[in-house]
Amino acid sequence: MKCPQCGTELPEGASFCGECGTKLEPRAAGSGDVKPPADAPKEAPKGWQYNTGVRIALGIVGVLLIVMGVMRIVSGLGGGVTRGVPKQDVAKVDERYVNADGHLMMRAFMELSGQEVIDQLEAAGYTRVEDEEGNVGWRREGGAGAVTGHQGDEAAAAAVDFSGFEPGGGDVPTYYVIAYDDSYRSPAEAMDAICGVEPDARNDYSDEYSFAQLTSSSGARFFCQTSYNETTKSAILFNEASVNDGFFGEYESFDELCEDVFDSADSSGDEELGEDLDKLTTTELDEAKKDEAKDTKAEAKKDDADKGDAKGKDAKKDADKTTSVEPPATATEECLDEYGNPTAYAISELSGADLVQLLESQGFTFHEDEDGFENADGTWFGVVDEEFVGLTPSQIEALGTDGGTKSILYMLRTAQYQTGREVMKGVVKCVTEDVALVDDNRGFAVVYGPSMREYFMTLAYGEADNDVFTVTWFSNDAIASGVFNKVTNYGTDDYKDLGDSVAEVWQNLVGTSVGDYVREHPLE
């Protein structure tokens, strides 16, 4: 008999074609078929293993699988990122563990196993990230924020794959980190949004750090810290085992740590907590940066000390001082107000070295403990960085005209004037583009030097400081770098971003465009 599909000669009574695999229908009775005896052994069908079409298809599938595997490996090596294989049944976002902003909350780490945490991360749009050293974390879609898990003692607590973690880390020293970038504008706001549970105790310690004690449904205890500063915007959750294991040095137990942080008589941040609590505030990299900055300032101060009496550092603050230092050749009468204080004109037009020489020519002496210059009348002038630490004379001398850096501001504190309006008139001495007086003692101004360097000027008044007026000048570049938003509280309580230019800050604070207000609030 022949196969009706491919014509191959087949044994009589065959059920399948051995060449193409076609199933053969039994012939009708009387067609001449000869049936084999009932007990005769039947020849085993060769089936699909001889089907040429099927073999080709399987070969193609095999090649595709190999290509896909190679592509995935290459993709993983490129940039040091390996993304997890998408699940067919990704877990749904559980609002108990993911907040409205799409951030995973601390409650997830406290209540869920590591794999269950990963399920929630994937459901919320996070993807797996692995660096060249094998440290594994999870990053939000679009690159914002990151989540990492850490186990082991402090020295070995590198980010690890936490898929095998027990809820809260169990009895193993464990902590988790959530980087929230600029999603929240203060540590207290981040604590509200990221906890997920009501704290047993809480201390909004400062504008940079908040602390909380949390308890899971199983009774496990955790210490949570949120940070908001120039280098760190994150939340960290430590389980009790990590604290008891000596992670915080001087704190030998979880209870001792919490007693120091939460049972302090003064929780406003004025009272110093144990020095080892500083380990909460930054990553090792941030600590290294801080140490480097401290070393730089210490070296600069040592350089100033080596200059001896030329800078007058050993003079007493309240001593009358006569000086033979001449003003710099670049200085003009617009560089000083009637009391011999530097003006906006001087800040705009003088180099750092000339500014120091101008101050010394007017009897100002640098005092390390005051982080600035002071004269016999008690007037203080300083060039301050974003941490409100005053630059030393040698550091100021290294600055070019207009500061030469985006992260500094200029400050003058004086009690020589009677009203804020007089201060504004006295310490500008250059073009006033706009001025807004909140009252007779407080206000803002936009001023320009002859070189058209633009400054946003703020005026504050403090009766508690013996009627001292504080004037601060921010260059347009300083505002663009974020210094203004960081060091002022002119925004709302949640540290609203007031803009990254003089024009934007003016619009947001005053409500009008620059140039529209001065006619109603003239200084003259």
Offer a quick outline of the entry.
The chain is built from 14 helices and 17 strands. It is of the alpha+beta class and 524 residues long.
Percent in strands: 15-25%
- Quaternary arrangement of the chains shown? single chain
Number of strands: 17
Which regions contain 5 or more consecutive residues with pLDDT less than 50? 28-88, 265-271, 278-298, 307-322, 491-495
**Apparent shape:** elongated
Radius of gyration, taken over Cα atoms and rounded to an integer in Å = 36 Å
Percent helix: 25-40%
* CA(first)-CA(last) distance: 118 Å
Coarse structural class:
alpha+beta
Mean pLDDT: 74
Number of helices: 14
Largest sheet: 9 strands, antiparallel
How many structural domains can be distinguished in the coordinates? 2
What report would you give on this structure?
The chain is 26% helix and 18% strand. The protein is α+β, with helices and mostly antiparallel strands and 524 residues long. The chain folds into 2 domains: 106-282, no CATH class; 290-510, no CATH class. The strands form 2 sheets. Strands 1, 2, 3, 4, 5, 6, 7, 8 and 9 form a 9-stranded antiparallel sheet that branches. An 8-stranded antiparallel sheet has the order 10-11-12-13-17-16-15-14, with helices on both faces. The longest helix is centred in the N-terminal third of the chain and has 26 residues, at 52-77. The chain is elongated. The model is unreliable at 28-88, 265-271, 278-298, 307-322 and 491-495 (pLDDT under 50).
